[in-house]
UniProtKB/TrEMBL annotation:
The chain crosses the membrane at residues 98-118. This is Regulator of SigK. It comes from Chloroflexus aggregans (strain MD-66 / DSM 9485). Keywords: Cell membrane, Membrane, Transmembrane, Transmembrane helix. The keyword Transmembrane applies. InterPro entries: Anti-sigma-K/W_factor, Anti_sigma_zinc_sf, RskA_C. The keyword Cell membrane applies. GO terms for molecular function: sigma factor antagonist activity. GO terms for cellular component: plasma membrane.
Length: 258
């Protein structure tokens, strides 16, 4: 029979010391011990080590509350199914309170954000309504100006033409004899107006009135019947609102009544 190696012998002796061999393997180890008496010393040492294994384990330590419950149950002071202190329940309620507090905080923040957003929408809607009303008013003004211009061009007689680097204009005498100045000029800032000047010979200019233009650049100014006689020079300047006693700005357009 083939002899086992030293490693196999050590494994067999260890299992033999722990009583972990089947009968055939035990017989084999006993034969080895007979054939090699020096192995008896190794077996003795392995058995001594095996005997110490149970003493090397730590003794289990029971929780104090389990020990007390066992004693109480043994002496009849407590029923077996009696519940202990509601520690887990208290902890659960604590977690629920924390969770509810977090939820209410999130809801409050969401409500504030929603209110700010709604207020912003309300302001935007108000601005949109104002812009709509302004656009409707401008459209009505343009339509009214267009109707007046149509009436002037079809039923009135032009008596002067105004021209210059700043704009152009036509002066009509309507069917009632009233002078109407139609000017095409760029819109001015809110703190300025256009002012018409009547110039007779060498005399100082006299104001014929102030006017503004719409978004399309058209403006109308009506003068009394006797304001602009034949030969009167008409000039337009831009002046600070609500007008000036004498011209301070550059003449934008000029012409003479025929």
């Amino acid at each position: 029979m083939e002899q086992p190696s030293e490693e196999e012998i050590t494994e067999l002796l260890t299992a033999y010391a722990l009583d972990a061999l089947d009968p055939s393997e035990r017989t084999r180890v006993q034969r080895l011990l007979t054939e090699r008496p020096e192995l008896q010393q190794m077996l003795t040492e392995l058995r001594a080590a095996a005997d110490l294994l149970p003493h090397s384990l730590d003794r289990p330590v029971l929780p104090p509350e389990l020990r007390q419950r066992t004693i109480d149950y043994a002496v009849g002071r407590r029923r077996r199914n009696e519940q202990g202190p509601p520690i887990a329940l208290s902890r659960r309620w604590s977690l629920l309170r924390v969770a509810w507090s977090s939820v209410t905080t999130v809801l409050f923040i969401g409500l504030v954000v929603a209110m700010v957003y709604l207020n912003s929408l309300r302001q935007e809607l108000s601005l949109a309504i104002q812009e709509r009303d302004r656009a409707q008013a401008l459209a009505a003004t343009v339509q009214a100006s267009a109707r007046q211009l149509a009436t002037l061009f079809t039923s009135s007689e032009p008596v002067a033409t105004l021209a210059g680097d700043g704009g152009q204009g036509v002066v009509f005498r309507d069917t009632t004899g009233q002078i109407v100045v139609v000017a095409v000029l760029p819109p001015l800032p809110a703190d300025q107006v256009y002012q018409l000047w009547l110039i007779e010979g060498e005399t100082a200019p006299v104001s014929g009135g102030v006017f503004t233009v719409d978004v399309s650049g058209y403006g109308l100014l009506r003068l009394p019947t006797t304001s602009a006689m034949s030969g009167t020079t008409l000039a337009v300047t831009a002046e600070p609102a609500p007008g000036s006693p004498g011209p301070t700005g550059t003449i934008l357009m000029i012409g003479k009544v025929t």
